[in-house]
């Protein structure tokens, strides 16, 4: 059964903008992206919204719904009360382009700064062998759909624009963790660069990235904290440092 | 203007548009932790009512000061002077830095108090009030990287507090095989402390998390798997253990001061 839904949609661009109220029909089982499309079709023909799969797998329709970073295609209208007004805004950590569309190119620049997988020189194509238990930790991080909700909610860059130069953000800490935990990756200095170039030390573990992840990746517990502990192994643990010098170990196997 | 009010971002004047009670959890965290700090400070300086009939308060164990009640010491070992610069030093003040340091640097408590006390941020997607932020890259917060040292110290404390719980199964006359309400309180306290320590992220890392090849270390992989299960509940164990330790201290204090009688089941 259709209901009249009260929506407040932010409309504007990088120079100006405001929240605009609309009332739109919403049918049972619909998600916020459905009603935004209905508004676009019936009331605001030039409303800009980015979307693609409508199945929570492409990460395109990231926006903030009642102040929370969410995927519009995975947010049920029925989760909100009949009298409630749903406020929809663009991601507030990134420059706005138009209406609900933001410029997320910051994330692509950061992606390029992360050194890619480094294959062992002595293994020819087809010779690599890995056991499942050695790769399952990294596989959790491969679920990332790059919606950048974690980046949006991270206060290190959301509340401090100046930190964008030196902070890669949670999405890229899971990328670094994925590679550092990879059984065949041979790059030695991932921990050092994570701390010194990508700003791992700026994270203060407030776990907002984990709270908003639509893929339920335990970003903080399984990627960021393990990486922080690995950095401690190398930089802040004199006993382990001494052990590595005495035994001349190349690293943990 | 920085953060969500930066020139290129959507022009929205509110610091947050969240409509839920996002302030409730940090407010509760603040209230509970602040109350604990006040109580712990009072008890640390009190220097009395920490031992009675084989019950010793976890705030005062191990009792290492020459000012300790002899029965509360570990085999009479009291290496620390009772006063420093003519200032009478409570036995608790000598040791509390270790459990305090363990909790202060704990990855879960960091989240809790950064949100509740420092509002960095107060809640997810709620703009923080600070104009600058450097995280844990500089002093004093870079010291958070010393968590593992407090973890190791915490394990030693857990062993001692478990020993305290075991000797509480003595009667007033010192005979084994008796159990009182105090025994249960100390067993609960030490059990919660073990669960809190073993579910710790540093424990998880030390046992197996730092490995690159689990397949070459099956025992450590199994240990890591078990700790990973516990690790899911680390926040709960953090609170339960805090409450259990506080209650154990309150109980021993009340018994030692004569306000409560320690009931023996057998």
Count of strand segments of chain A = 7
Q: For the record, what is the CATH homologous superfamily label of the largest domain in chain A? A: Alpha-helical ferredoxin
Multimeric state: heterodimer
Uncertain segments of chain B: none
What CATH first level of the largest domain in chain A would be assigned? Mainly Alpha
Compile the SSE list and pairings.
The complex is a heterodimer of chains A (253) and B (266).
Chain A: E1 3-12, E2 17-26, H1 32-42, E3 62-65, E4 68-71, E5 85-89, E6 96-98, E7 101-102, H2 105-113, H3 132-141, H4 149-153, H5 155-158, H6 170-180, H7 190-196, H8 208-212, H9 219-236, H10 238-247
Parallel strand pairs in A: 1-5
Antiparallel strand pairs in A: 1-2, 3-4, 3-5, 6-7
Helix pairs in contact in A: 3-6, 6-9, 7-9
Chain B: H1 24-46, E1 51-52, E2 55-56, E3 83-84, E4 87-88, H2 91-95, H3 97-104, H4 107-116, H5 147-167, H6 181-198, H7 201-209, H8 218-231, H9 234-257
Antiparallel strand pairs in B: 1-2, 3-4
Notes on the structure:
The complex is a heterodimer of chains A (about 250) and B (about 270). Chain A is about 35% helix and about 15% strand. With about 250 residues, chain A is of the alpha+beta class. Chain A folds into two domains: about 5-100, Roll (Ubiquitin-like (UB roll)), CATH 3.10.20.30; about 105-245, Fumarate Reductase Iron-sulfur Protein, Chain B, domain 2, CATH 1.10.1060. In chain A, helix 6 crosses helix 9 and helix 7 (about 190-195) packs across helix 9 (about 220-235). By secondary structure, chain B is mainly α. Chain B has one domain. The radius of gyration of chain B is 22 Å and the shape is globular. The mean pLDDT of chain B is about 95.
Write a concise synopsis of the structure shown.
Chain A is built from 10 helices and 7 strands. Chain A has helices at residues 32-42, 105-113, 132-141, 149-153, 155-158, 170-180, 190-196, 208-212, 219-236, 238-247; strands at 3-12, 17-26, 62-65, 68-71, 85-89, 96-98, 101-102.
């Amino acid at each position: 059964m259709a209901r009249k839904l009260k929506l407040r949609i932010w409309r504007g661009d990088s120079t100006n903008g405001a929240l605009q109220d609309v009332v739109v029909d919403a049918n049972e089982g619909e998600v916020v992206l459905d009603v935004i499309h209905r508004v676009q079709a019936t009331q605001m023909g030039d409303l800009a919204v980015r979307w693609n799969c409508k199945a929570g797998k492409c990460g395109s329709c990231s926006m903030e719904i009642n102040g929370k970073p969410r995927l519009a295609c995975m947010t049920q209208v029925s989760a909100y009360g009949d009298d409630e007004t749903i406020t929809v805004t663009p991601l507030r950590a990134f420059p706005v382009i138009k209406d609900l569309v933001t410029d997320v190119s910051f994330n692509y620049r950061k992606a390029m700064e992360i050194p890619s997988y480094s294959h062992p020189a002595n293994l020819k194509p087809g010779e690599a062998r890995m056991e499942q238990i050695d790769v399952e930790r990294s596989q959790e991080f491969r679920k990332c759909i790059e919606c950048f909700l974690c980046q949006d909610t991270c206060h290190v860059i959301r509340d401090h624009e100046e930190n964008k130069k030196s902070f890669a953000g949670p999405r890229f800490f899971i990328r670094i963790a994925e590679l550092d935990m990879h059984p065949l990756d041979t790059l030695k200095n991932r921990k050092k660069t994570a701390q010194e170039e990508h700003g791992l030390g700026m994270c203060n573990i407030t776990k907002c990235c984990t709270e908003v992840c639509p893929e339920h990746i335990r970003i903080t517990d399984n990627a960021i904290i393990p990486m922080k502990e690995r950095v401690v192994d190398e930089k802040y643990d004199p006993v382990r440092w001494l052990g590595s010098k005495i035994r001349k170990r190349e690293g943990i196997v | 203007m920085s953060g969500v009010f930066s020139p290129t971002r959507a022009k929205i004047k509110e610091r947050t548009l969240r409509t839920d009670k996002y302030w409730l959890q940090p407010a509760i965290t603040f209230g509970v932790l602040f109350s604990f700090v006040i109580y712990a400070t009072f008890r640390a300086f009190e220097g009395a009512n920490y031992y009675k009939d084989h019950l010793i308060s976890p705030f005062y164990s191990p009792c290492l000061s020459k000012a300790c009640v002899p029965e509360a010491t570990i085999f009479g070992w009291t290496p620390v002077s009772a006063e420093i610069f003519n200032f009478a030093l409570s036995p608790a003040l000598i040791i509390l830095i270790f459990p305090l340091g363990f909790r202060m640097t704990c990855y879960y408590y960091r989240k809790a108090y950064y949100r509740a006390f420092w509002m960095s941020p107060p809640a997810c997607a709620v703009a923080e009030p600070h104009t600058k932020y450097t995280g844990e890259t500089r002093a004093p917060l870079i010291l958070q990287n010393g968590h593992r040292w407090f973890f190791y110290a915490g394990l030693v404390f857990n062993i001692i507090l478990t020993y305290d719980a075991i000797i509480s199964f003595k009667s007033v006359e010192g005979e084994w095989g008796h159990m009182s309400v105090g025994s249960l309180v100390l067993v609960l306290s030490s059990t919660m402390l073990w669960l809190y320590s073993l579910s710790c992220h540093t424990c998880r890392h030390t046992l197996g998390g730092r490995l690159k090849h689990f397949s070459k270390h099956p025992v450590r992989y199994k240990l890591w798997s078990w700790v990973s299960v516990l690790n899911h509940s680390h926040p709960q164990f953090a609170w339960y253990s805090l409450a259990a330790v506080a209650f154990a201290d309150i109980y021993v204090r009340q018994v030692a001061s004569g306000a409560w009688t320690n009931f023996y089941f057998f």
